[in-house]
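Example 3.2
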Amino acid sequence: MIQTYYGVVHPWLCDNMGHLTTRHYVGMFDDSHAHFFAELGADMGEMLKRDEGFADVKSTLEYMQELRVGDLLIVKGKILSLGRKSFVHKHEMYNRNTGVLAATMENITVAFDLRARKAVPLFDYFRASAERYIEEFACADA
């Protein structure tokens, strides 16, 4: 997995019950996605110049353990599969203080033509990088 985010649970990120709110889980995962895509060769600044982007079409967020004020967070990501126009990636948020898995987010993301506003085949440079990553990940697990 690629480590993509470090964070901390501040009081202003919590609800009236004292734990991290859903909107901030989503924001932290979203920030981690930008770093994850960059690690896989998707430079968003360069992509925007070519009217290329990504769009999430499905997200599944699961909570395993609540996060409270002062908890330090680490998010790691991996690609699960590649399709013609889309890919599935999963991100895991860990409580750095305890090492416990706190939440996961799994997304289906499509390559997106920003001018035409529609899904397109995965960009060649991204597919090549993602395929290499999947191969390396599979070898590391063996």
